[in-house]
Hints:
By secondary structure, the chain is mainly alpha-helical. The chain contains eight helices and no strands.
Amino acid sequence: MLAYATVFVSDYSYLAVFLFLFSLSFALPISEEVALLTVGYLTKEGLVAFPYALIVSFFGILAGDMFLFFLGRFAGNYILKSKYFRKLFKEKNIERGKLFIEKNGPKVVFISRFVLGVRATTMVASGTLKMKVRTFAIYDFLAMLIFLPILEFIGYFLAENLDSSISIVNKIGIVGLVVFVIGVLIFATKSFWKNKYGGS
């Protein structure tokens, strides 16, 4: 993957960086962490300048996130109304999901940026459950302000040990996923208990 990215960026420069990161949302079978570390590595190699690559990275990932958001906004209702989906989820559970997004959506969007494996689902769900576009974009961008520079700096400064960096970041991402799932389960259990038994 690194060899292909190097050739692609060598040929098309910042356009390649934008397309590389934008396509993460629907095409490339690699994690965002790996992609950003790779961009950092490419800046170290002198193929692109770090400040400009970082700016282009912001736009590339934001464009991909907005693509997923609007996919949920315009196609999500078809999924929600499908017979298969209705068999899996009851109407009251769907309504609870909508209320959850209304009350906690911005926090979920922000946190999901740091959790491996849940970003795309969160983006689509946010659009499907009608989160405001401005709210989604603001919290997504705020998370990127932290997430993107850190990973690209790591890719730049640890370019000679990129494989080790990727391995470490992926392990951290898996830990984050486990913590996120546990948090969701705790929240769901508390909500269920409160709704069923009227606990405080």
